[in-house]
Hints:
Largest sheet of chain A: none
Structural class of chain A: mainly alpha
Shape of chain B: globular
Largest sheet of chain B: none
Shape of chain A: elongated
Distance between the termini of chain B: 67 Å
Structural class of chain B: mainly alpha
Radius of gyration of chain A: 17 Å
Order of helices and strands of chain B: HHHHHH
Order of helices and strands of chain A: HHH
Helix content of chain A: over 70%
Radius of gyration of chain B: 21 Å
CATH architecture of chain A: Orthogonal Bundle
Largest interface: A-B, 71 and 88 residues
Number of domains of chain B: 2
Mean pLDDT of chain A: 90
Helix content of chain B: over 70%
Number of domains of chain A: 1
Number of helices of chain B: 6
CATH superfamily of the largest domain in chain B: NADH-ubiquinone/plastoquinone oxidoreductase chain 6, subunit NuoJ
Oligomer: heterodimer
CATH class of the largest domain in chain B: Mainly Alpha
Amino acid sequence: MTPLHSYLLLSALLFAVGLGGALTRRNAIIVLVGIELMLNAANLNFIAFWRYGQNPQALTGIVFVIFSIGVAAAEAAVGLALIISIYRHYKTANVDQIDSMKG
Amino acid sequence: MSATFVMLAVLTVVSAVAVMLLRNLVHCALALAVTFAGLAGIYLQLNAQFVGFAQLLVYVGAVAILIVFAILLTRGREPPLQSVFSGSAIVGFGIAIVVFAVLATMTLSSRALGMEKPGEANASVAQIGEQLMTRYILPLEVAGLLLTVALIGAVIIAMRDKEPE
């Protein structure tokens, strides 16, 4: 059987990969993808703690993940719409060239 | 560790790293779909069937396709000429490695180390539906409102501005 800490380590690794991508990539779409990966890592933690918790009948982890998936879908839709709008204005989707508010 | 978990974990992590390293954005989106499918497999392996299939429908079916559309609309399908990483990428990688080190140390020094499954845990769709319709009815309504607002907001933001006359 798989112990709980292997799921937590997998989730930490996914979070770190997503964070690394969100901090280093140039393209705004991949930055958004990195944020999605971080959200998914958190969801994996919720499911793992639900499965290994003392009171799985309460379904708290499951319901939280369902709402989290819904909110993440809304976030992805609005975020990609913003990126398309920015692309139309600046003719680029690279975050380091969108700097007109830089002081 | 069971063999299914190891295979799914390796698939998920390798494709997640591929998403962050590949130059061609369309390849990134395809690797992302593999990552989401691997996570759905891990949810199924943890007995969370409904969440696993919701993950497949929402992420593999909708979010990945949405990202492909965004890549095509922003002409990201040609690989970029300059580096895909920003100038201060070293700092970003350093932060990511430090975050992983902290999380892994805390996990390995916590009570979660070596904890086994306490027994059978099952979440049938009927149970989830009952909970959503009784205890979580207000969050469900708020989530519905949020999705409606996000739908309208995304359409308005992405709508082409009128040509000045």
